[in-house]
Predict the structure.
Amino acid sequence: MSAPFEAPPGMILAGGLSRRMGGGDKGLRDLSGRPLLAHVIARVAPQLPALALNANGDPARFAPLGLEVVPDPLPGHPGPLAGVLAAMGWAQARGAPWVVTVPGDTPWLPGDLVPRLILASEESDGIALAECGGRLHPVCGLWPVRLRATLERDIADGARRIGDWAQRHGAARAAFAEGTPDPFANLNTPEDFARAEARR
């Protein structure tokens, strides 16, 4: 299947419970004077025609970010695959055959993430995932929305690991160079935030 000729819409996945941060909205925590999510938005929004946020609970708390908030379509916080499912449904409603997802806790994403995912998808049946230094980063992915029903069924059957599911469906890999800071580093703990502040 051909890759999209134009950049698809994208969704930031921030529907997790942030257990390692002690709960709450990790994406709204301050990093260098702005919410962590604002850094992610600044990185990916220029690469996409439209961007939304996958998050659960009262969407009003994200209003200052200016993004549409889309909750998980499934109950019980089944993990990031539910966020991908939310992204697929949102993109499908917009008439888009593809959607890009990125994590909500990665402030240094590459400026060419989306075009390189699109190029990599030409080698697969549609899914492409980011890889850096030999490590897969499956939340940074390009997904064909035609797999939405398959994904919903597989989640109901117990699928939870986003990388495993993607690779079962022939995901290609888009390789990115390592850097400092790590372009795919995610901030999971208060110590991660402290180290990120120290880099600036």
